[in-house]
Amino acid sequence: MLPSYSPKSSSSPKKTNSIERKNSSGSFRSQSSFFFPNNNRLWLLLIIISLQIILLLMARGLPFFHRRSHFPSPLSYSHQLLQNSSNVSFTHHLKSAGISIPSAVSPPERCSSGRIFVYTLPAFFNQELLDNCADLDPWHSRCEALSNDGFGRKATGLSGVVPEDLVPAWYWTDQFAMEVIYHNRVLNHECRTTEPDSATAFYIPFYAGLAVGKYLWLGYSSRDRDRYCEMLLKWLQDQPYWNRSDGWDHFLTMGRITWDFRRSKNEDWGSSCLYMSGLRNITRLLIERNPWDYFDVGVPYPTGFHPRSDSEVVQWQDFVRNRRRTTLFCFAGAPRSTINNDFRGLLLSHCNNASGSCRAVNCTGTRCSNGTSVILETFLDSHFCLQPRGDSFTRRSVFDCMIAGSIPVFFWHRTAYLQYEWFLPDDPKSYSVFIHRDLVKNGASIKTILENYSTEEVNQMREKVIQYIPKLVYAKPEHGLENTKDAFDVAIDGVLQRIKEQEQPGFKWKR
Protein backbone atom coordinates (compact mmCIF):
# COMPACT_ATOMS: atom_id res chain seq x y z
CA MET A 1 0.00 0.00 0.00
CA LEU A 2 1.23 3.51 -0.79
CA PRO A 3 1.81 5.67 2.30
CA SER A 4 -0.99 8.13 2.91
CA TYR A 5 -0.12 11.80 2.79
CA SER A 6 -1.45 14.27 5.35
CA PRO A 7 -0.20 17.88 5.33
CA LYS A 8 1.07 19.21 8.64
CA SER A 9 -1.19 21.55 10.50
CA SER A 10 -0.48 25.26 10.20
CA SER A 11 -1.72 25.97 13.67
CA SER A 12 1.71 25.39 15.20
CA PRO A 13 4.23 27.56 13.35
CA LYS A 14 7.48 25.90 12.41
CA LYS A 15 10.76 27.50 13.36
CA THR A 16 12.59 28.49 10.23
CA ASN A 17 16.19 29.28 9.72
CA SER A 18 16.69 33.02 9.40
CA ILE A 19 18.65 32.66 6.17
CA GLU A 20 15.79 30.63 4.65
CA ARG A 21 13.26 33.27 5.72
CA LYS A 22 15.41 35.99 4.32
CA ASN A 23 15.92 34.32 0.96
CA SER A 24 12.27 33.41 0.71
CA SER A 25 10.96 36.87 1.49
CA GLY A 26 13.53 38.52 -0.74
CA SER A 27 12.56 36.26 -3.60
CA PHE A 28 8.90 37.06 -3.18
CA ARG A 29 9.47 40.77 -3.02
CA SER A 30 11.59 40.76 -6.15
CA GLN A 31 9.03 38.66 -8.06
CA SER A 32 6.07 40.71 -6.91
CA SER A 33 7.74 44.00 -7.79
CA PHE A 34 8.56 42.62 -11.24
CA PHE A 35 5.02 41.41 -12.04
CA PHE A 36 3.00 43.87 -10.06
CA PRO A 37 4.67 47.26 -9.95
CA ASN A 38 1.31 48.81 -8.86
CA ASN A 39 0.79 46.20 -6.14
CA ASN A 40 -2.45 45.03 -7.75
CA ARG A 41 -3.76 42.51 -5.20
CA LEU A 42 -6.66 41.37 -7.37
CA TRP A 43 -4.37 40.14 -10.12
CA LEU A 44 -2.16 38.42 -7.59
CA LEU A 45 -5.17 36.55 -6.15
CA LEU A 46 -6.34 35.43 -9.61
CA ILE A 47 -2.89 34.09 -10.54
CA ILE A 48 -2.57 32.17 -7.26
CA ILE A 49 -5.99 30.57 -7.80
CA SER A 50 -5.06 29.66 -11.39
CA LEU A 51 -1.81 28.03 -10.23
CA GLN A 52 -3.70 25.96 -7.66
CA ILE A 53 -6.14 24.72 -10.31
CA ILE A 54 -3.28 23.76 -12.63
CA LEU A 55 -1.47 21.90 -9.82
CA LEU A 56 -4.65 20.04 -8.89
CA LEU A 57 -5.23 18.89 -12.48
CA MET A 58 -1.63 17.75 -12.76
CA ALA A 59 -1.83 15.83 -9.48
CA ARG A 60 -4.98 13.99 -10.57
CA GLY A 61 -2.99 12.59 -13.48
CA LEU A 62 -0.57 10.83 -11.14
CA PRO A 63 -1.07 7.07 -10.46
CA PHE A 64 -1.49 7.72 -6.73
CA PHE A 65 -4.84 9.46 -7.23
CA HIS A 66 -6.58 6.90 -9.43
CA ARG A 67 -4.95 3.56 -8.57
CA ARG A 68 -7.62 2.43 -6.12
CA SER A 69 -10.49 3.14 -8.49
CA HIS A 70 -9.30 0.32 -10.79
CA PHE A 71 -9.66 -2.54 -8.30
CA PRO A 72 -12.23 -3.53 -5.68
CA SER A 73 -11.47 -2.56 -2.14
CA PRO A 74 -10.03 -5.25 0.14
CA LEU A 75 -13.30 -5.39 2.06
CA SER A 76 -15.48 -5.89 -1.00
CA TYR A 77 -13.18 -8.55 -2.46
CA SER A 78 -13.04 -10.52 0.78
CA HIS A 79 -16.81 -10.31 1.00
CA GLN A 80 -17.09 -11.68 -2.52
CA LEU A 81 -14.85 -14.64 -1.64
CA LEU A 82 -16.97 -15.46 1.36
CA GLN A 83 -20.15 -15.24 -0.69
CA ASN A 84 -18.72 -17.67 -3.23
CA SER A 85 -18.13 -20.19 -0.46
CA SER A 86 -21.35 -21.75 0.73
CA ASN A 87 -21.06 -20.48 4.32
CA VAL A 88 -18.64 -19.35 7.00
CA SER A 89 -18.19 -22.83 8.44
CA PHE A 90 -17.14 -24.12 5.02
CA THR A 91 -14.57 -21.32 4.80
CA HIS A 92 -13.18 -22.34 8.18
CA HIS A 93 -13.11 -25.94 6.95
CA LEU A 94 -11.02 -24.93 3.95
CA LYS A 95 -8.42 -23.34 6.20
CA SER A 96 -8.27 -26.32 8.55
CA ALA A 97 -7.82 -28.64 5.55
CA GLY A 98 -4.71 -26.79 4.41
CA ILE A 99 -6.46 -24.87 1.64
CA SER A 100 -5.45 -21.22 1.46
CA ILE A 101 -8.13 -18.59 1.10
CA PRO A 102 -6.72 -15.36 -0.28
CA SER A 103 -7.81 -12.33 1.67
CA ALA A 104 -8.08 -8.95 0.01
CA VAL A 105 -6.19 -9.98 -3.12
CA SER A 106 -7.22 -8.22 -6.30
CA PRO A 107 -6.67 -10.04 -9.65
CA PRO A 108 -3.64 -7.98 -10.77
CA GLU A 109 -1.96 -8.64 -7.41
CA ARG A 110 -2.41 -12.37 -7.95
CA CYS A 111 -0.11 -11.91 -10.95
CA SER A 112 2.53 -10.08 -8.93
CA SER A 113 5.06 -12.81 -9.77
CA GLY A 114 4.66 -12.08 -13.45
CA ARG A 115 2.72 -12.99 -16.56
CA ILE A 116 3.05 -15.83 -19.05
CA PHE A 117 3.20 -15.59 -22.82
CA VAL A 118 2.20 -18.75 -24.69
CA TYR A 119 3.84 -19.34 -28.05
CA THR A 120 1.64 -20.38 -30.94
CA LEU A 121 3.72 -23.24 -32.27
CA PRO A 122 3.21 -24.86 -35.66
CA ALA A 123 0.59 -27.59 -35.24
CA PHE A 124 3.27 -30.16 -36.02
CA PHE A 125 4.55 -29.82 -32.44
CA ASN A 126 1.27 -30.38 -30.59
CA GLN A 127 -2.14 -30.50 -32.28
CA GLU A 128 -1.08 -32.82 -35.09
CA LEU A 129 0.24 -35.26 -32.49
CA LEU A 130 -3.22 -35.34 -30.91
CA ASP A 131 -4.89 -35.65 -34.30
CA ASN A 132 -2.72 -38.69 -34.98
CA CYS A 133 -3.15 -40.17 -31.50
CA ALA A 134 -3.78 -43.65 -32.93
CA ASP A 135 -0.19 -43.73 -34.20
CA LEU A 136 1.63 -42.52 -31.07
CA ASP A 137 2.13 -46.00 -29.66
CA PRO A 138 3.25 -49.01 -31.71
CA TRP A 139 0.89 -51.38 -29.84
CA HIS A 140 -2.37 -49.54 -29.22
CA SER A 141 -4.18 -46.25 -29.80
CA ARG A 142 -3.58 -43.35 -27.42
CA CYS A 143 -6.74 -41.49 -28.42
CA GLU A 144 -8.83 -42.51 -25.42
CA ALA A 145 -6.00 -41.75 -22.99
CA LEU A 146 -5.58 -38.22 -24.38
CA SER A 147 -9.30 -37.39 -24.58
CA ASN A 148 -11.09 -34.92 -22.27
CA ASP A 149 -8.21 -32.42 -22.34
CA GLY A 150 -5.75 -35.08 -21.23
CA PHE A 151 -7.80 -36.51 -18.36
CA GLY A 152 -8.84 -39.58 -20.34
CA ARG A 153 -12.18 -41.35 -20.16
CA LYS A 154 -14.42 -41.01 -17.14
CA ALA A 155 -13.84 -43.64 -14.47
CA THR A 156 -16.37 -46.40 -14.08
CA GLY A 157 -16.82 -49.08 -11.45
CA LEU A 158 -16.08 -46.76 -8.53
CA SER A 159 -19.56 -46.89 -7.01
CA GLY A 160 -19.14 -48.02 -3.43
CA VAL A 161 -15.40 -47.32 -3.54
CA VAL A 162 -15.52 -43.51 -3.35
CA PRO A 163 -18.39 -41.22 -2.28
CA GLU A 164 -21.09 -41.26 -4.96
CA ASP A 165 -21.07 -37.50 -5.54
CA LEU A 166 -17.29 -37.63 -6.12
CA VAL A 167 -17.39 -40.34 -8.78
CA PRO A 168 -17.69 -37.71 -11.59
CA ALA A 169 -14.36 -36.22 -10.43
CA TRP A 170 -12.53 -39.45 -11.28
CA TYR A 171 -11.01 -40.35 -14.65
CA TRP A 172 -8.77 -43.13 -15.90
CA THR A 173 -5.96 -40.66 -16.52
CA ASP A 174 -2.78 -41.79 -18.25
CA GLN A 175 0.50 -41.12 -16.45
CA PHE A 176 2.04 -39.60 -19.61
CA ALA A 177 -0.74 -37.06 -20.35
CA MET A 178 0.81 -34.15 -18.47
CA GLU A 179 1.69 -32.05 -21.54
CA VAL A 180 -1.93 -31.82 -22.68
CA ILE A 181 -3.21 -31.03 -19.18
CA TYR A 182 -0.68 -28.23 -18.65
CA HIS A 183 -1.21 -26.73 -22.10
CA ASN A 184 -4.96 -26.38 -21.56
CA ARG A 185 -4.49 -24.86 -18.14
CA VAL A 186 -1.84 -22.35 -19.25
CA LEU A 187 -4.06 -21.16 -22.09
CA ASN A 188 -6.74 -20.31 -19.53
CA HIS A 189 -4.46 -19.00 -16.78
CA GLU A 190 -5.43 -15.67 -15.28
CA CYS A 191 -1.85 -14.43 -15.63
CA ARG A 192 -1.52 -15.27 -19.30
CA THR A 193 -0.68 -12.30 -21.51
CA THR A 194 -0.88 -11.92 -25.27
CA GLU A 195 1.75 -9.16 -25.16
CA PRO A 196 5.24 -10.72 -25.06
CA ASP A 197 6.82 -7.45 -23.91
CA SER A 198 4.89 -7.70 -20.64
CA ALA A 199 5.73 -11.37 -20.02
CA THR A 200 7.96 -12.71 -17.27
CA ALA A 201 7.90 -16.27 -18.61
CA PHE A 202 7.42 -17.81 -22.05
CA TYR A 203 5.67 -21.18 -22.32
CA ILE A 204 6.57 -23.51 -25.20
CA PRO A 205 3.59 -25.88 -25.74
CA PHE A 206 5.63 -28.65 -27.33
CA TYR A 207 4.41 -32.20 -26.57
CA ALA A 208 7.90 -33.62 -26.26
CA GLY A 209 6.83 -36.84 -24.57
CA LEU A 210 4.16 -37.65 -27.13
CA ALA A 211 6.56 -36.79 -29.95
CA VAL A 212 9.31 -39.16 -28.83
CA GLY A 213 7.08 -41.97 -27.52
CA LYS A 214 6.48 -43.86 -30.72
CA TYR A 215 10.19 -43.82 -31.62
CA LEU A 216 11.47 -45.43 -28.42
CA TRP A 217 10.82 -48.96 -29.68
CA LEU A 218 10.83 -51.11 -32.81
CA GLY A 219 14.22 -50.20 -34.17
CA TYR A 220 13.77 -46.50 -34.92
CA SER A 221 17.03 -44.60 -35.37
CA SER A 222 18.50 -41.88 -33.17
CA ARG A 223 17.70 -39.39 -35.93
CA ASP A 224 14.03 -40.35 -35.70
CA ARG A 225 14.05 -39.76 -31.94
CA ASP A 226 15.80 -36.39 -32.27
CA ARG A 227 13.82 -34.99 -35.19
CA TYR A 228 11.16 -33.08 -33.24
CA CYS A 229 13.59 -31.43 -30.83
CA GLU A 230 15.89 -30.38 -33.65
CA MET A 231 12.99 -28.80 -35.51
CA LEU A 232 11.78 -27.05 -32.34
CA LEU A 233 15.23 -25.62 -31.71
CA LYS A 234 15.41 -24.29 -35.25
CA TRP A 235 11.99 -22.64 -34.80
CA LEU A 236 12.95 -21.10 -31.45
CA GLN A 237 16.15 -19.63 -32.83
CA ASP A 238 14.02 -17.45 -35.10
CA GLN A 239 12.09 -16.00 -32.14
CA PRO A 240 13.35 -12.64 -30.84
CA TYR A 241 12.34 -13.24 -27.22
CA TRP A 242 14.17 -16.54 -27.18
CA ASN A 243 17.32 -14.91 -28.51
CA ARG A 244 16.99 -12.02 -26.05
CA SER A 245 17.30 -14.33 -23.03
CA ASP A 246 19.01 -17.36 -24.59
CA GLY A 247 16.05 -19.36 -23.28
CA TRP A 248 16.46 -18.53 -19.56
CA ASP A 249 12.90 -17.19 -19.19
CA HIS A 250 11.31 -20.04 -21.19
CA PHE A 251 9.75 -23.24 -19.89
CA LEU A 252 8.00 -26.32 -21.23
CA THR A 253 6.44 -29.53 -20.00
CA MET A 254 7.91 -32.89 -20.92
CA GLY A 255 5.43 -35.59 -20.05
CA ARG A 256 7.90 -38.41 -19.52
CA ILE A 257 10.89 -39.05 -17.26
CA THR A 258 14.00 -36.98 -17.90
CA TRP A 259 16.01 -40.04 -18.99
CA ASP A 260 13.84 -40.38 -22.10
CA PHE A 261 15.45 -37.14 -23.33
CA ARG A 262 19.08 -37.73 -22.28
CA ARG A 263 20.64 -40.03 -24.85
CA SER A 264 24.40 -39.53 -24.79
CA LYS A 265 25.26 -42.11 -27.47
CA ASN A 266 23.40 -42.96 -30.65
CA GLU A 267 22.79 -46.56 -29.64
CA ASP A 268 21.34 -45.61 -26.24
CA TRP A 269 17.73 -45.12 -25.19
CA GLY A 270 15.71 -41.96 -25.85
CA SER A 271 16.34 -38.68 -27.61
CA SER A 272 19.22 -36.29 -26.98
CA CYS A 273 16.88 -33.32 -26.60
CA LEU A 274 18.22 -32.13 -23.24
CA TYR A 275 21.81 -32.39 -24.43
CA MET A 276 21.26 -30.03 -27.36
CA SER A 277 23.21 -26.90 -26.47
CA GLY A 278 20.49 -24.54 -27.64
CA LEU A 279 17.94 -26.02 -25.22
CA ARG A 280 20.06 -26.21 -22.08
CA ASN A 281 18.66 -23.08 -20.36
CA ILE A 282 14.96 -23.97 -20.49
CA THR A 283 13.12 -24.83 -17.29
CA ARG A 284 11.52 -28.24 -17.84
CA LEU A 285 8.64 -29.69 -15.88
CA LEU A 286 8.94 -33.49 -15.83
CA ILE A 287 7.37 -36.36 -13.91
CA GLU A 288 10.91 -37.43 -12.99
CA ARG A 289 13.86 -35.07 -12.87
CA ASN A 290 17.61 -35.43 -12.80
CA PRO A 291 18.39 -34.20 -9.26
CA TRP A 292 21.72 -32.79 -10.44
CA ASP A 293 20.28 -30.65 -13.24
CA TYR A 294 19.02 -27.27 -12.04
CA PHE A 295 16.72 -26.85 -15.05
CA ASP A 296 14.79 -30.07 -14.35
CA VAL A 297 11.78 -29.65 -12.05
CA GLY A 298 9.88 -32.71 -10.88
CA VAL A 299 6.08 -32.36 -10.84
CA PRO A 300 3.45 -34.91 -9.72
CA TYR A 301 2.36 -37.66 -12.04
CA PRO A 302 -1.26 -37.17 -13.16
CA THR A 303 -3.58 -39.42 -11.16
CA GLY A 304 -7.29 -40.21 -11.48
CA PHE A 305 -8.77 -37.63 -9.06
CA HIS A 306 -9.54 -34.24 -10.64
CA PRO A 307 -11.67 -32.19 -8.22
CA ARG A 308 -14.13 -29.73 -9.70
CA SER A 309 -14.37 -27.41 -6.68
CA ASP A 310 -12.81 -26.53 -3.35
CA SER A 311 -15.60 -28.38 -1.58
CA GLU A 312 -14.73 -31.60 -3.42
CA VAL A 313 -11.14 -31.34 -2.19
CA VAL A 314 -12.37 -30.96 1.39
CA GLN A 315 -14.88 -33.78 0.99
CA TRP A 316 -12.21 -36.13 -0.31
CA GLN A 317 -9.82 -35.19 2.50
CA ASP A 318 -12.53 -35.95 5.05
CA PHE A 319 -13.29 -39.24 3.34
CA VAL A 320 -9.71 -40.54 3.47
CA ARG A 321 -9.18 -39.11 6.97
CA ASN A 322 -12.15 -41.02 8.39
CA ARG A 323 -11.61 -44.17 6.36
CA ARG A 324 -11.43 -47.36 8.44
CA ARG A 325 -8.17 -49.03 7.42
CA THR A 326 -7.92 -52.72 8.09
CA THR A 327 -4.40 -53.49 6.80
CA LEU A 328 -1.06 -52.34 8.22
CA PHE A 329 0.66 -52.03 4.85
CA CYS A 330 0.30 -52.94 1.19
CA PHE A 331 2.25 -53.29 -2.01
CA ALA A 332 1.02 -53.03 -5.59
CA GLY A 333 3.50 -53.85 -8.31
CA ALA A 334 4.77 -56.41 -10.76
CA PRO A 335 7.95 -58.42 -10.15
CA ARG A 336 10.75 -58.21 -12.71
CA SER A 337 11.75 -61.82 -13.21
CA THR A 338 14.46 -60.87 -15.70
CA ILE A 339 16.29 -58.74 -13.10
CA ASN A 340 18.69 -60.41 -10.67
CA ASN A 341 17.74 -59.85 -7.01
CA ASP A 342 14.54 -58.09 -8.11
CA PHE A 343 13.54 -55.85 -5.20
CA ARG A 344 9.88 -55.70 -6.13
CA GLY A 345 9.69 -59.47 -6.04
CA LEU A 346 11.28 -59.34 -2.59
CA LEU A 347 8.59 -56.89 -1.39
CA LEU A 348 5.85 -59.16 -2.68
CA SER A 349 7.38 -61.99 -0.66
CA HIS A 350 7.50 -59.80 2.47
CA CYS A 351 3.87 -58.91 1.93
CA ASN A 352 2.72 -62.47 1.39
CA ASN A 353 4.57 -63.61 4.54
CA ALA A 354 3.18 -60.87 6.78
CA SER A 355 0.38 -63.02 8.25
CA GLY A 356 -2.55 -60.86 7.19
CA SER A 357 -0.86 -57.53 7.98
CA CYS A 358 -0.13 -56.79 4.31
CA ARG A 359 -2.30 -56.70 1.21
CA ALA A 360 -0.45 -57.53 -2.00
CA VAL A 361 -1.56 -56.72 -5.53
CA ASN A 362 0.53 -58.51 -8.13
CA CYS A 363 0.32 -56.27 -11.19
CA THR A 364 1.61 -58.82 -13.66
CA GLY A 365 -0.38 -58.50 -16.87
CA THR A 366 -3.14 -55.88 -17.00
CA ARG A 367 -4.58 -56.25 -13.50
CA CYS A 368 -3.38 -52.78 -12.42
CA SER A 369 -3.98 -50.95 -15.69
CA ASN A 370 -6.26 -47.95 -16.01
CA GLY A 371 -9.87 -49.03 -15.84
CA THR A 372 -9.70 -51.01 -12.59
CA SER A 373 -10.19 -49.84 -9.00
CA VAL A 374 -8.14 -52.56 -7.31
CA ILE A 375 -5.15 -50.33 -6.51
CA LEU A 376 -7.28 -47.48 -5.18
CA GLU A 377 -9.18 -49.84 -2.90
CA THR A 378 -5.92 -51.34 -1.65
CA PHE A 379 -4.46 -47.95 -0.74
CA LEU A 380 -7.70 -46.80 0.91
CA ASP A 381 -7.66 -49.87 3.18
CA SER A 382 -3.98 -49.63 4.24
CA HIS A 383 -2.11 -47.46 6.73
CA PHE A 384 1.18 -47.68 4.79
CA CYS A 385 2.02 -48.35 1.14
CA LEU A 386 5.40 -49.68 -0.01
CA GLN A 387 6.95 -47.54 -2.75
CA PRO A 388 10.14 -48.95 -4.28
CA ARG A 389 11.56 -47.46 -7.44
CA GLY A 390 9.67 -48.28 -10.62
CA ASP A 391 11.17 -48.85 -14.04
CA SER A 392 13.03 -45.63 -13.18
CA PHE A 393 13.50 -44.07 -9.74
CA THR A 394 9.93 -42.74 -9.53
CA ARG A 395 6.50 -44.25 -10.04
CA ARG A 396 2.99 -42.88 -10.33
CA SER A 397 1.92 -45.20 -7.52
CA VAL A 398 3.47 -42.77 -5.00
CA PHE A 399 0.77 -40.23 -5.80
CA ASP A 400 -2.05 -42.78 -6.04
CA CYS A 401 -1.02 -43.90 -2.56
CA MET A 402 -0.88 -40.44 -0.98
CA ILE A 403 -4.13 -39.23 -2.54
CA ALA A 404 -5.77 -42.25 -0.88
CA GLY A 405 -4.44 -41.05 2.49
CA SER A 406 -1.95 -43.89 2.83
CA ILE A 407 1.56 -43.20 4.19
CA PRO A 408 4.33 -43.94 1.67
CA VAL A 409 7.30 -46.12 2.61
CA PHE A 410 10.37 -45.35 0.50
CA PHE A 411 13.55 -47.35 -0.12
CA TRP A 412 15.39 -44.86 -2.40
CA HIS A 413 15.76 -41.14 -1.67
CA ARG A 414 15.38 -40.39 -5.38
CA THR A 415 11.87 -41.84 -5.50
CA ALA A 416 10.40 -38.68 -3.92
CA TYR A 417 12.68 -36.72 -1.57
CA LEU A 418 14.99 -35.49 -4.34
CA GLN A 419 12.20 -35.11 -6.89
CA TYR A 420 9.20 -33.10 -5.77
CA GLU A 421 10.46 -30.44 -3.35
CA TRP A 422 7.81 -27.90 -4.38
CA PHE A 423 4.97 -30.31 -3.64
CA LEU A 424 5.94 -32.28 -0.53
CA PRO A 425 6.68 -31.29 3.09
CA ASP A 426 10.23 -30.22 3.90
CA ASP A 427 10.61 -32.89 6.58
CA PRO A 428 10.36 -36.38 5.01
CA LYS A 429 9.71 -37.95 8.43
CA SER A 430 6.55 -35.90 8.82
CA TYR A 431 4.69 -37.76 6.08
CA SER A 432 6.67 -40.89 5.15
CA VAL A 433 8.86 -43.75 6.33
CA PHE A 434 12.29 -44.48 4.87
CA ILE A 435 13.76 -47.99 5.06
CA HIS A 436 17.02 -48.45 3.23
CA ARG A 437 16.70 -51.22 0.70
CA ASP A 438 19.84 -52.93 1.99
CA LEU A 439 18.16 -53.49 5.36
CA VAL A 440 15.34 -55.33 3.63
CA LYS A 441 17.76 -57.34 1.50
CA ASN A 442 19.63 -58.33 4.66
CA GLY A 443 16.53 -59.68 6.33
CA ALA A 444 14.96 -56.77 8.23
CA SER A 445 11.20 -57.19 8.74
CA ILE A 446 9.13 -54.44 7.17
CA LYS A 447 6.17 -55.48 9.29
CA THR A 448 8.14 -55.12 12.54
CA ILE A 449 9.49 -51.70 11.57
CA LEU A 450 6.01 -50.36 10.75
CA GLU A 451 4.41 -51.88 13.85
CA ASN A 452 6.82 -49.86 16.00
CA TYR A 453 5.05 -46.64 15.02
CA SER A 454 2.44 -45.62 17.59
CA THR A 455 -1.15 -44.84 16.65
CA GLU A 456 -0.48 -41.17 17.36
CA GLU A 457 2.57 -41.11 15.08
CA VAL A 458 0.63 -42.83 12.30
CA ASN A 459 -2.24 -40.35 12.62
CA GLN A 460 0.16 -37.39 12.51
CA MET A 461 1.86 -38.67 9.37
CA ARG A 462 -1.48 -39.37 7.71
CA GLU A 463 -2.74 -35.90 8.55
CA LYS A 464 0.32 -34.40 6.89
CA VAL A 465 -0.29 -36.52 3.78
CA ILE A 466 -3.93 -35.40 3.70
CA GLN A 467 -2.95 -31.77 4.13
CA TYR A 468 -0.79 -31.96 0.99
CA ILE A 469 -3.35 -33.70 -1.23
CA PRO A 470 -4.36 -30.42 -2.99
CA LYS A 471 -0.77 -29.99 -4.20
CA LEU A 472 -0.72 -33.48 -5.69
CA VAL A 473 -3.85 -33.36 -7.87
CA TYR A 474 -4.72 -31.62 -11.14
CA ALA A 475 -8.11 -29.91 -10.91
CA LYS A 476 -10.71 -30.33 -13.63
CA PRO A 477 -11.76 -26.70 -14.34
CA GLU A 478 -9.70 -25.03 -17.06
CA HIS A 479 -9.25 -21.99 -14.80
CA GLY A 480 -8.33 -24.09 -11.77
CA LEU A 481 -10.09 -24.02 -8.42
CA GLU A 482 -11.29 -20.87 -6.74
CA ASN A 483 -9.25 -20.79 -3.54
CA THR A 484 -7.13 -23.95 -3.75
CA LYS A 485 -3.73 -24.21 -5.40
CA ASP A 486 -3.41 -27.58 -7.12
CA ALA A 487 -0.27 -29.18 -8.56
CA PHE A 488 -0.47 -27.04 -11.69
CA ASP A 489 -0.71 -23.79 -9.70
CA VAL A 490 2.23 -24.75 -7.50
CA ALA A 491 4.32 -25.57 -10.57
CA ILE A 492 3.52 -22.31 -12.36
CA ASP A 493 4.14 -20.21 -9.24
CA GLY A 494 7.48 -21.95 -8.84
CA VAL A 495 8.48 -21.35 -12.44
CA LEU A 496 7.68 -17.63 -12.24
CA GLN A 497 9.58 -17.31 -8.96
CA ARG A 498 12.70 -19.05 -10.23
CA ILE A 499 12.73 -16.94 -13.42
CA LYS A 500 12.68 -13.82 -11.23
CA GLU A 501 15.52 -15.21 -9.13
CA GLN A 502 17.56 -15.79 -12.26
CA GLU A 503 17.60 -12.03 -12.86
CA GLN A 504 19.93 -11.54 -9.90
CA PRO A 505 23.40 -10.33 -10.91
CA GLY A 506 25.85 -13.12 -11.64
CA PHE A 507 23.20 -15.87 -11.69
CA LYS A 508 23.33 -16.74 -15.38
CA TRP A 509 26.29 -18.05 -17.27
CA LYS A 510 27.21 -16.38 -20.53
CA ARG A 511 27.03 -18.00 -23.93
TrEMBL record:
List the transmembrane segments.
Answer: 42-59
Bias-annotated ranges (Low complexity) = 1-15
Where in the cell does this protein reside? Golgi apparatus membrane
Where does the record place the Exostosin GT47 domain? 111-449
Keyword Zinc-finger, does the record have it? no
Bilayer topology annotation:
Single-pass type II membrane protein
Main subcellular location? Golgi
Q: What is this protein called?
A: Exostosin GT47 domain-containing protein
InterPro entries per UniProt: Exostosin, Exostosin_GT47
Tagged with keyword Membrane? yes
**High-level lineage:** Eukaryota, Viridiplantae, Streptophyta, Embryophyta, Tracheophyta
Q: Which family does the UniProt entry place this protein in?
A: Belongs to the glycosyltransferase 47 family.
Region annotated Disordered sits at 1-27
**Species of provenance:** Hibiscus sabdariffa
**Which keywords belong to this entry?**
Glycosyltransferase, Golgi apparatus, Membrane, Signal-anchor, Transferase, Transmembrane, Transmembrane helix
> What Pfam families has UniProt attached to this entry?
Exostosin_GT47
Superkingdom as given in the UniProt entry: Eukaryota
